[in-house]
Amino acid sequence: MPCSNRALDGLLGQIADAEAAGVRIVHGGNRIDRPGFYLEPTIVTRIAEDNPLYQQEAFGPVLSFYVVDTEDEAIRLANATRFGLGSYVFDADVDHARQVAARLEAGMVYINSCFADSPSLPFGGVENSGFGRELSELGIAEFVNRKLVRVAR
After folding, report:
1. CB of 145 within 8 A of CB of 101?
2. What is the pLDDT of residues 65-97, one digit of tens each?
């Protein structure tokens, strides 16, 4: 949920701009009338490549739902963003899911699970979804300035 009125207004603006540009709101899209900053869980479909929501991250309960015909098209769509925090692959064939995961441009790819983070796993994205990693050994290395000193014989 958004943590401030400004954040909620930003989400409502994203939804309104997307709707004006042609998305279909299947469910939600409105502020919940109660104390705090709550947005109804929102599902949008028919998101064309020229729609602003196609290239935006919505930090709230907004599901952008796409339908594709092929695996290659799904991978192209998943990678057609300036953001790459996390991706999810669901498949009964785990070996095939690993092949798909290798083609996704994301800092984290989960197979057959969602949000399985823990302090022992690195967390971070690629492109405009973060720089470097936090948590785990990879995360602490982000705070260490390593220096190589080599003496020639």
Report:
1. no
2. 999 999 999 999 999 988 777 889 999 999 999
